[in-house]
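Much of what follows relies on a compact textual record of a protein's fold. With that in mind, consider the following protein and its fold in token form.
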Amino acid sequence: MEVCSSLGKSAKMKGSAEVTLCKLKCWAFLVGRIQNVLSLFCAVLTENKILFHSASYQRLSDACRALESLIYPLKYSYPYIPILPAQLLEVLSSPTPFIIGVHSLFCNDIHELLDVIIADLDGGTIKIPECIHLSQLPEPLLYQTQTALSLVLHPDLETADYAFPPPRSALSHSKMLDKEVRAVFLRLFAQLFQGYRSCLQLIRIHSEPVINFHKAAFLGQRGLIENDFLTKVLHGMAFAGFVSDRGPPYRSCDLFDELVAFEIERIKSEESHSSKMLKHIRELAEQLFKNENPNPHMAFQKVPRPTEGSHLRVHVLPFPRINEAQVQDLIQEGLAKNHSIPPATRVERKCVVPAGPPVVSIVEKSSTVFNSAQRLEVVRNCISSIFENKILETEKTLPAALRALKGKAARLCLTQELSLHVQQNRAILDHQQFDYIIRMMNCTLQGSSIFLAVN
């Protein structure tokens, strides 16, 4: 499994993303199923501890680098150690999140860890401890990402049951498969953060911009107030760095900015058309590839690889001894040339960052049931159970009633029902009954504050 190293994370150009030459397809094969890939992706975004172990040091460094590159445009802000030395195994007991790789020789030591997600690169499995609740991507983004990864990594799966399969499209080159996997997750982030610029609050410009992100408004507009995954992402250090780097309205733009501003409608229209989705993924992969190869040209090895059996030839002359003084002179000559030539840098062209379309709910309006009669009936039944002191029935219906109170109609229903019960019966509530009412009123006030912030 050969995986190239990174050329640098800071190099960016207009219409492109950061430079990473990791072969993500190889990493996806190492961790096994697509679900394992998504689990590790969600784990790193929700700031969990992730530990890779393998008998190969190369696989460890490749896997850690691949996972870090998947979260672009976010940047990992916690300890990142692709190969942990044996003398530093105590670092695994750190209270902070991390991405660390260890050799399989230390399996007996790492399996005692209770709050670490362990990925076996040789066996293709991951172990999630019972004490960790791993938040997943919200639907329908989870299903769409699984479908897109399946199209890229398992292209024959879609037509495997056809009696007469259609003509196979040209398979992607191994180098392009890596970029296609990255393109899938870049599309995912564009959908997840769509409209984020409308929730930015510029507090100060001089001397350095201070920007705040209105998390409650963004979650409310996206319809994901109760979603653990996005809530954890927005409160993480990676997203704080994202706001700091991408919040300013005038800066250099890249491929992610273009996706969020101009391609959201196209991505939505491709949800039910796998061929169009794959075409867009390959277009993004081409742009990622061009970013890593801005000046494509034929590369030849300076030292040709010897042919098979060349070492058995009798006439091969022994390799001459190296002249140390001559080698040192060549090194000094090269260093002198490098000092005299200015370093090659990419010119960053700054522009006004396009705002893109406004924030919309990730859930279709037809599927929202906040204002349905069934939800309102749940609220009424819960209030009746509280006033009648039916504790068991209250415990059953309270969670559903609290979820229903995220809707405006349900909050109005609560005030009406409380008013009716006060008028009909001036009952004295005990502490437990009063606590239930307070919890429902708190939920109602929180929903109302978010609604006002959004509008």
Remarks:
- The first strand starts at residue 49 and ends at 54.
- The radius of gyration is 28 Å.
